């Protein structure tokens, strides 16, 4: 691989429009301190000192795309409830458009509440409905997505699937068919329910466990030849151009054109892995839109995912920090 012009690559991110389809949520945080154990049960009593709501799920992917200089357009179905007002307010606060957001009376706006004491993640409470969209809502959602795709110049599409029911097989098929007819690259961060529905996409990004479950091949994480065999099986079944597989402490693996590359993880002080996958897929979408080589897509995305693990909580990537690390690694 030739030495790339990193500055030109990062500057090009500013011109891209990225459509993000998926399950959005509110990441709610409660911070506090533990001073004693409850007399009612052997559990710590947390004295709350601060509470905050943040955009999560597919919305965190949008924040990462925005942080890298591009324009994210988020498409999701949320409830028509008190939490939806909070979600819409968070979108406005972060200067994200709500043109792709559909509110539905029969859905609940997903909230994940994390309780953190003395920098330790103690507990998470989830409020959600994870059934698939009903047929009427699904049709409205598809029409909203296709209208945006028809009206705007979209440079890449991300499916950010958290298995909450917003992405259905019909949504996938409709959007991928439109994208392929119009030469728009598609990227997928999959979950179990729709894993094998993502046919004919450009880049498919499972983690190691999802790869093993999806390919039905028993392999060890460090067995790269075995991972390649499993990836080739998925390439064949999904007809995906690239498979980008995250291997946590071992870095990432990318396969394409009957070959593969492994990118080792950087040595870091890991504070919290929450949101790393969101950062990685958001970064990969911009690298793909910029027409980068597969190894560089994987390498820059791997750096981005690692950087956010140094922060506590779900936070978007710092573009300047990623730029500097990319310069050091590839120039």
Show the helix and strand layout:
Layout: H1 6-12, E1 17-22, E2 24-37, E3 44-57, H2 58-67, E4 71-79, H3 82-93, E5 100-104, E6 111-117, E7 120-127, H4 135-151, E8 156-160, H5 169-181, E9 186-189, E10 203-204, H6 208-215, H7 224-238, E11 242-246, E12 252-256, E13 259-263, H8 276-289, H9 294-308, H10 319-330
Helix pairs in contact: 2-8, 4-5, 6-7, 8-9, 9-10
Description:
- The protein contains 10 helices and 13 strands.
- With 331 residues, the protein is α/β, with parallel strands linked by helices.
- It has a single domain, classed as UDP-N-acetylmuramoyl-L-alanine:D-glutamate ligase (3-Layer(aba) Sandwich), CATH 3.40.1190.
- The strands form 2 sheets. It has a 9-stranded mixed β-sheet, sandwiched between helices.
- Strand 12 and strand 13 (259-263) form a beta hairpin.
- Helix 6 packs across helix 7 (224-238).
- The longest helix has 17 residues, at 135-151.
- It starts with 5 loop residues before the first helix and ends with a helix.
Helix content: 25-40%
Low-confidence stretches: none
Give the tally of structural domains: 1
- CATH homologous superfamily placement: Ribokinase
In summary, what is this structure?
The protein has one domain (6-33, 48-330): Ribokinase (UDP-N-acetylmuramoyl-L-alanine:D-glutamate ligase, 3-Layer(aba) Sandwich), CATH 3.40.1190.20. The chain is 37% helix and 27% strand.
Question: Can you tag this structure with a few keywords?
Answer:
331 residues, UDP-N-acetylmuramoyl-L-alanine:D-glutamate ligase, 9-stranded mixed beta sheet, alpha/beta
